[in-house]
């Protein structure tokens, strides 16, 4: 039986991700500048949530370490088998360690 290991997921262009819905949208999203960083939302409601950081939407948990990650500086990839959902990593190194264990 042949087992083919597929290539690892590439880093996503952050401006194509809605940081509120945590989804790859496939096109440029609305930029939201906060404290010198840029976040992205898909609609007016998401823009407001990002501006106000409602429910702490500007941050995510790094899947490898569980540490808080600022989405504006995260290494973003598609979540495997999740139909457009994304994961945020503190660094490419963390992503590689995580993906090596999949």
Q: Biggest β-sheet: count, sense, barrel?
A: 2 strands, antiparallel
C-alpha-based Rg, rounded? 14 Å
**What is the mean predicted local confidence, pLDDT?**
91
Structure annotation, total helices? 2
In short:
The chain has 102 residues and is α+β, with helices and mostly antiparallel strands.
Structure description:
By secondary structure, the chain is α+β, with helices and mostly antiparallel strands. About 20% of the residues lie in helices and about 25% in strands. The protein is built from 2 helices and 8 strands; from the N terminus they run E-E-E-E-H-E-E-E-E-H. It has helices at about 45-50, 90-100, and strands spanning about 15-20, 25, 30-35, 35-40, 60, 70, 75-80, 85-90. Strands 1-2 form a two-stranded antiparallel ribbon. Strands 3-4 form a two-stranded antiparallel ribbon. It has a two-stranded antiparallel sheet with strand order 5-6. A hairpin with a 2-residue loop joins strand 3 (about 30-35) and strand 4 (about 35-40). Residues about 1-5 have low confidence and may be disordered.
Helices and strands in order:
Elements: E1 17-18, E2 23-24, E3 30-34, E4 37-41, H1 44-52, E5 59-61, E6 68-70, E7 75-78, E8 86-89, H2 92-100
Antiparallel strand pairs: 1-2, 3-4, 5-6, 7-8
Key words describing this protein structure:
single chain, 102 residues, alpha+beta, two-stranded antiparallel ribbon, 8 strands, 18% helix, globular, disordered N terminus
């Amino acid at each position: 039986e042949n087992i083919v290991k597929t290539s690892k997921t590439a880093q996503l262009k952050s401006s194509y991700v809605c940081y509120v819905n945590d989804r790859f949208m496939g096109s440029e999203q609305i930029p939201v500048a906060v404290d010198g960083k840029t976040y992205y939302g898909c609609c007016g409601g998401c823009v407001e949530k990002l501006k106000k950081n409602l429910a702490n939407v500007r941050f995510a948990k790094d899947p490898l370490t569980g540490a808080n990650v600022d989405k504006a500086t995260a290494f973003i990839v598609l979540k495997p088998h999740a139909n457009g959902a994304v994961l945020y990593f503190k660094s490419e190194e963390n992503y590689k360690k995580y993906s090596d264990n999949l």
